Amino acid sequence: MDFKEIESRFQPTSDGKYAEAENGMVATAFPGATRAGARMLRDGGNAVDAACAAAIALGVCEPQSSGIGGQTMMLITLENGKVLAIDGSSRAPSLAHVGAIYKDDRSHGYRAATVPSTLATLWYVNKNYGLLPWEQILEPAIRLADDGYVITPLQHRIQKQELKNFNKVESGSGKKYFLKDGEPYLPGDMFYQPDLARLLRILADKGVEEFYQGKVAKQIDADMRENGGLLRYDDLALIPFPIVRKPLKRKFRGLTVYSMPPPGAGRSLLFTLSMINMIKPAHLNRDEFAKAHLLVEIFRNTLLERSDRPFDPNYYPQVAEQDILKRTYVRSCIREITRESEIRIPVHETEDEFTGETTHLSVIDGSGMAVSLTQSIERTYGSKAAADGLGFLYNNYLMDYEYKTFSHPFYLRPNAVPWATVAPTLIFRGKDIWMAVGSPGSERIFSAIAQFLIHVVDEHQSIGEAMHAPRLHCSLGGRVSLEAERFPDRFPAFFRQKGYRIDERESFSFYLGAIHAVLKKHDGTGFQGVAEVRRDGTAEGY
User: Fold this and answer.
1) Sign of the C-alpha dihedral computed for residues 122, 127, 132 and 133 taken in this order
2) 269 lies in which domain range?
3) Residue at which a domain ends, from 346, 377, 400
4) Domain assignment present for 534
């Protein structure tokens, strides 16, 4: 693998989508959050400090994707090279059980919310692995909420798309805080969040205990009771601190790839890469149509494997790692795919096919500490219900539990954690960190990251070229989503002929993931970062 060629092809741009720096790098989905992270590095903080500041800032300036009402997961590389998986899952409220939740309750409104864990998670990693004080971490987010920011065309489009769902919440709390007089903000409008700024100041002064065990927790309890929600003070008071888990890892073309264990979906990414690893790059790239067909079937088989083999996050550490991603099983799957036998499309489809919203950020600092962090409030704008007087959105993670099969590891029960599709990822050259990467996109997260890595590792593209390249995805039910205008004209007909359904997306589709990646140059001379052209973000270092 020619690291020099990959890194030398990279070209920084004036819009901040592609950036280079000497001492560290941050890439996030919004400029204000990127600046918050980069500022922590300049002020003497490490990658964890930068990631925490950027993550909280994203909840302010990208509220459609994440916030303090959601959950956060990440991988951290410490200075000694040890990799930790931080499972910041939210928890089901004590009143949540299958009989109490109607289907509509799962998608919008107060009953859809689980116990928010983002604050507990970020506070925990800042205290245990960061260098800067908590109040300094929150300062950029407070300023963003106070001073406001400019609504982007993408945010306007998403608000138009979600208007009907905001209107389903009887209290109108989500509309009150995140729309303008009940209508979408226009691109260029300023958006201010004074209630959220006040809350963040309280949390900077008193710590997260105030959110979970103080007056703020009582305010949330009262808001939930008034609006028929299930979340209570007693749920919050337990404080959902994260669990430090052992990450999953696999070799890919000689690199060591770490990703998120259950309840995250790093297994899906590593399963995909393990299948691709059994195919020589020259064979994979011999024909554009054959390559696309192979990837589509690999993605579909990965989703089938995930659906059929859910791992309980409290049990998987007792399972030998080779049994979670068995090479013999991977080999049998890729053999079946490469035989080009008749495609058998299942009649059922994943419920998640058309929905899902998340955000991702990546950081590497000068000491070699790295963070790959993915967080969410589940669907776009979460439950569409906001905490009155506090200014943040409740999540709707009750969508991500199993409601039929009692033995399923993610069956809904009090204090259970939801199933997640996130796959924050760290990549090593030997013992040295090389890249932090991840993506939002629900069930399309693993396929977006896999395609990015194929472009970089097999085709020796720069991380900028690989992020910019056209993408596709195949759902469990055989629906191929692709940026049709950027693939050969015959692609849609080719897949239809083979029995797939076609979902033609715009040229740079928000739907097909959003890569935010940071690379530490192999010779130690600096850092490169990219922020997805399909979203609003930037990369910045110092």
Assistant:
1) positive
2) 249-354+432-541
3) 400
4) yes
How many C-beta neighbours within 10 Å does residue 247 have? 23
Q: Are residues 283 and 259 in the same domain?
A: yes
* 280 and 202 in a common domain: no
Together in a domain, 277 and 204: no
Tell me the pLDDT of the chain (542 aa) as tens digits. 789 999 999 999 999 999 999 999 999 999 999 999 999 999 999 999 999 999 999 999 999 999 999 999 999 999 999 999 999 999 999 999 998 887 777 889 999 999 999 999 999 999 999 999 999 999 999 999 999 999 999 999 999 999 999 999 999 999 999 999 999 999 999 999 999 999 999 999 999 999 999 999 999 999 999 999 999 999 999 999 999 999 999 999 999 999 999 999 999 999 999 999 998 888 887 889 999 999 999 999 899 888 877 777 775 565 555 566 777 778 888 887 877 545 555 545 555 444 557 999 999 999 999 999 999 999 999 999 999 999 999 999 999 999 998 888 899 999 999 999 999 999 999 999 999 999 999 999 999 999 999 999 999 999 999 999 999 999 998 999 999 999 999 999 999 999 999 999 999 999 999 999 999 999 989 999 999 999 999 999 99
Question: Is-above-0.90 flag for pTM?
Answer: yes
Burial class from Cβ neighbours inside 10 Å (0-12, 13-18, 19+) for residue 94 reads middle
Q: Which residues have CB under 8 Å from 50's CB, separation 6+?
A: 24, 26, 37, 38, 40, 41, 363, 365, 371
Are 313 and 200 found together in one domain?
Answer: no
Number of helices (H), then strands (E), belonging to the chain: the values are 20, 19
